[in-house]
Structure of Dynein light intermediate chain:
Amino acid sequence: MAPNRSSAHNSLNPAESNVDPEREIWSSILQQVQKTATNKLPSNKSILVLGDNDSGKTSLIAKMQGMDATCKGSGLEYQYLMVRDEYRDEQTQCGVWILDGNYTWKSNLLKFALNADNFADTTILLVCSMSKPWDIINSLHHWVEVLESHIKSLNLDPKKLEHFREQNRRRFQDYISPGDEIEGLSAGHRNRTYSYNSGGGDSPTENERDPLPDNVLCNNLGLDIVVAVTKADYMSTLEKEYDYKEEHFDYIQQAVRKFCLEYGATLMYVSAKINKNCDLLYKYLVHRIYGLKFKTPALVVEKDAAFIPSGWDNEKKIAILYENIQSFSPDDNYNDIITVPMNANLTQKEQEIVAEDDQIFLIKLRSQLNQQVSVSSGSTPIRSTNTTPTVVKPRQSTTGSIGGSNQSTPLSGTNTPGGEGVLQSFFNSLLSRKSTSGAQSSPGMVGGSPSIGNSPRTPVSSNTSAAAAASASAAAESLRSRDVHAELDRIIEGNKQQSQLSDVGE
């Protein structure tokens, strides 16, 4: 009888026959950790953003980060997106490389964002702007050519590159529109043929795929590409200012969708200004890169919010847009239909404010201060050798005229030094009053005093009137004499004050 191998084995290894239960618990925990470790979100994924200047690359990434303020960089800019799997309570960071639009002198920087090591973990985001629709197709072709030339410079193993292309082809063909998973109506399932196991099992094994049309994924770069048409809110401005019609926007969309079919890319219209489809783009990128759930189907109803996922589109669906294109043919050259308007504002870029050098700023400030000091010193000099005496304007004198009216005498003589003009005008006024006082009567004066109000006049005799006239004349002469002496005193006092001010100034 043959010996029992298990008993012999246990006898040779007594330590294994008596396994510690605690050790078994720890080993089971380690096995579970190893199994779940493969399900963690990888941290080596990245997105490479390519596009012209002023196409909105930085603003779009900032909006997906949840920020409104943006700070545009230069050269090759690096940022990241926070990715969180709420189902498994895991999170990671997805790197974002943003290449400046002036690629002609920054070509050596692209190797840091896309190289042979991270080729399989990189997603391409091509950005073009609706603010310049006449440059959309040219911009997309330009950056694809840049990407193709860079991939050639990497000198990848042909087998690896073909493997990447096959993965890209499978992603395109295996697309399942949300809602069709249960029904199995996706294009990927229709393009498969299955053969069953010889054992009669129900699990199908993939045998082959139907070949793709000639114009679909004909330029396979081996990379997952997403095309984002930014500034979709500018379409309303194109309608108002440049007379764009619905057929123009349909023509642009069908041209971009044909481009996306050639490269197996996804198309999405976004606007960071009004936050349209920015969150949808973030969720789709996370879905494509990390395999998280995404339940939004294709969107083709709203012209400024179109979403065409990779693998959903085909020529028949694009042909629906042809029905609205009447003024031109969809096969016409893009640059012949979407041209640059005559009144187009091609300088939409805001000028950057550059601070000048500190020394230049201080020199300008010193010159301004010197000008202010010179102006102030010229208007109010601190010391002056030739001082012109200032004539103090006397108060207006009021004399009671014979007719009972008050008359003001102008006393101004600033043009003559010493106040001689004031005296001359004053004495001239006295002479004119004296000459007229003798010829006029004074009905308003009774006993040398003016009448008050409109009291009735008292009739007087000839002797009384003569006495009254003499008394009025004597009162007028006395008043004139007092005014002359007062005016002379004021002039003398003003000259003394002016001379004292001149002495103090010297």
Q: What stands out?
A: Residues 462-505 form the longest helix (44 residues).
